[in-house]
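Recall the central idea of this unit: under ordinary conditions, the amino acid sequence of a chain determines the structure it adopts. In this exercise we apply that idea directly, starting from the sequence alone.
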Amino acid sequence: MAEEKEKTAEEVKRLIPPVDIYETENNVMLIADIPGVTKENLQVDIENDELTISGLFLEPKIDSGKKLINECYYGKYTRTFTLSDVIAQDKITAKLDDGVLTVTLPKQEKAKPKKITISTE
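Accordingly, the structure predicted from this sequence is:
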């Protein structure tokens, strides 16, 4: 049985998936690159105005042989984002497709840009 060793700061940094965040007129989109992570090993939660993505990168099972090069990192990770009051938390959705997690954070109606018509008297 292999012992679980404590991860270094560099290993932890590499384990946390990279995220891009985009803003459209109606939504904020959070896109995380998580290749090899299945829906069963992934969780997206909202609590106290924070969105948390947590998951598990599993190491492949090899029946025999030994590892010669170790460039991949495996284990649990958690990433938390603070949500502003602009986000309609009850309408947030998440989709996992080909190793890419897309979390759609719809904006509140009042937060959407609006053009004001100027009238003359």
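The CA atoms of residues 46 and 52 lie 6 Å apart.
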